[in-house]
Amino acid sequence: MQRNRSLIYPTILFFLLPTGAFAHTGIATTVGFANGFFHPIGGFDHLLAMVAVGIWATQLGGRSLWIVPGTFVAVMIGGGILGLSGIEIPFIEQGILLSVLIIGILIAGTFQFSTSVNVLTVGLFAFFHGHAHGAEMPQMVGAISYCSGFIFSTFGLHSIGIGIGTGLQKFKTPKIQRFAGGAIALSAICLAVI
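Request: output the structure for the sequence above.
Response:
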């Protein structure tokens, strides 16, 4: 019970941070941060994948609760740097959709793998998301503020997923959690068709 409460305060603090960033007078920094922050939220595929990572990490439990989202953010930064550098990688959009599909299936099937397999899986998908964030950075914004924005946004979406997963575990509703995973996977198929 105490562990669940400890997640609430960082999440609340996180959502207060962007408000403070918007109050700064440096327009380029604010615009760059805002663009980066809203990029993962504005794309339904990014949003689904990042919330799903949090749900999956909760389902895995133990060290995976922080290793899986932490790996996602770390590798996403590396992919973002390559995207910012203009290095083209094929099949980025397909990789993003595949991440939504596979993580949804992993949640629905309650699959348990070793920590190294979980890290490799989430790291591969994070690379695709990061590259897309970096490659789609608007011109005339600062790269550091833009990257800071999508990093904070990703942490927030992972935290939402962890909150959802924790809530579902607390109320002992594994069928709903599995249904959510199936819905996430089905959403990937719908996005691929659209």
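The chain has a mean pLDDT of 86.
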